[in-house]
Design brief:
The structure is a single chain. By secondary structure, the protein is α+β, with helices and mostly antiparallel strands. The protein has helices spanning about 5, 20-30, 65-75, 120-130, 155-160, and strands spanning about 30-40, 45-55, 60-65, 75-85, 90-105, 140-145, 150-155. The chain is built from five helices and seven strands; from the N terminus they run ααβββαββαββα. The chain has a six-stranded antiparallel barrel.
Length: about 160
């Protein structure tokens, strides 16, 4: 579950913000996030990535020979967005901000057991390797963990309820 202090920092749009339970369900169910990092010139770099949410942290499984990984190693501050919807009154999403922490070896080969990764890898395998049940390591990816310092969420489906619609 997300720390209520992290959620309470959202000032604007509280009426359409997700509850902790809604946020946890949305992040657990959604499949793709967009990760914003800073390049060496300070320009933003945004890229899609699969992830898992454990109720407290967002776990990202990134290719280690990528612009994203290079950016993360140099400056681990990121913003991540997960969103959905097509029409205005269907839009919902979450923005998470914070500092990434590398966990385990990079690239991850799976040769050694890393207790801190057990839950994340179990969740990842269940979400993306449906039916497999085991985490697949290709020796090209590494894990980073975002325990957000700020979370903002929105659910425009609540707007109709606020306006009596």
């Amino acid at each position: 579950m997300v720390d209520s202090d992290v959620l309470s920092t959202q000032k604007r749009g509280r009426r359409i913000a997700m509850t902790k339970e809604e946020l946890d369900a949305f992040l657990a169910d959604s499949r793709t996030c967009r990760v914003a990092t800073l390049t060496s010139s300070g320009a933003p770099h945004v890229s899609p990535l699969w992830y898992v949410w454990d109720g407290t942290s967002l776990w990202l499984y990134s290719i280690v020979k990528s612009q994203r990984w290079t950016d993360i190693l140099r400056d681990p501050r990121v913003a991540v967005v997960v969103d959905a919807g097509h029409d205005f009154f269907e839009l919902l999403g979450v923005e998470l901000r914070g500092t990434l922490e590398q966990v385990g070896e990079a690239p991850r080969t799976g040769a050694e057991s890393i207790p801190e990764l057990e839950a994340a890898e179990r969740l990842f395998a269940a979400k993306y390797f449906e039916g497999e049940g085991n985490m697949y390591h290709d020796g090209r990816h590494g894990w980073v963990k975002l325990t957000p310092s700020k979370i903002a969420s929105w659910d425009h489906r609540k707007i109709a309820g606020l306006n009596g619609g």
